[in-house]
Amino acid sequence: MAQKTSIHAEAGLHRKLVLFAVQLEGYLAHFPNCHKYTLTQGIRQAFLDVYNLVTECQKRYFKKTSLTQLDVRHEQLRMMIHLANEMGLFNYSLSRKDAKEPGAHRFLTILKMVDELGRMIGGWVRSEIQGLTPQNAVEA
After folding, report:
1. Residue 140, Cβ neighbours under 10 Å: how many?
2. Predicted pLDDT of residue 112
3. How many CB atoms lie within 10 A of CB 46?
4. Closest Cα partner for 50 from 23, 85, 14?
5. Are residues 123 and 10 in contact, defined by beta-carbon separation less than 8 angstroms?
6. How many domains would you assign to the chain?
7. Which residues span the domain enclosing 53?
8. Residue 77: which CATH number?
9. Is there a domain that residue 15 lies in?
10. What pTM was computed for the model?
11. CA-CA distances (angstroms) from residue 91 to 9, 28, 80, 101?
12. Is residue 2 part of a domain?
C-alpha cells in the first residue's frame, strides 16, 4: 500500500523553492536590460506559477489536475532557463557581457536546482497516482 506524501516532504519542497528563488533572482538581476520585460519576466512568472501550484496541490483533496499543471509549468520553467542559456544571458554581469564568462557555472547551478525540484514534483505525482489506484481504494 502506497504511503501518502507527508506534510514534511511538501514543506521540504517549499523550502527548496525558496532557495531556488533566491538563487534565480540573483542570476536574473544580471541579465541585460533588453530582456527585463520579456524572458526575465517570463521566468519569474513561471517560477511564481510553480510556487502557487505547489500550495494549491497541498490544499486540494483531488490533486491530479493540479499536479499535472504543476508538472507542465515546471517543464516550461526549465525550457525558459535553457533558452536563456542558449542566448548566453547567464554570461552577463550587471547587464554587461562578462569577460570571465561565468555563464556555464551559473547555468549548471540553477539547472541542478531545477532538476531537484523536478524529481520532487515527479515523486509527488507518482505517489498520488499510486494512491488513487482502485486496489488501494478497496483496501481502505
Report:
1. 7
2. 96
3. 19
4. 14
5. no
6. 1
7. 7-132
8. 1.20.1440.60
9. yes
10. 0.81
11. 35, 11, 16, 5
12. no
Long-range contacts of 101-110 (CB under 8 A, 24+ apart): 106/27, 107/81, 109/23, 110/20, 110/23, 110/24, 110/27, 110/81
On whether residue 1 sits in a domain, the answer given is no
Flag whether 123 is in a domain. yes
Contact present, 34 and 134 (Cβ < 8 Å):
no
At 50 the pLDDT is 96
Q: Which long-range contacts (CB under 8 A, 24 or more apart) does 80-85 make?
A: 80/39, 80/42, 80/43, 80/46, 81/43, 81/107, 81/110, 81/111, 81/114, 83/39, 84/31, 84/35, 84/39, 84/43
CA dist 140 and 136 (Å) reads 6
Q: What pLDDT is attached to residue 43?
A: 97
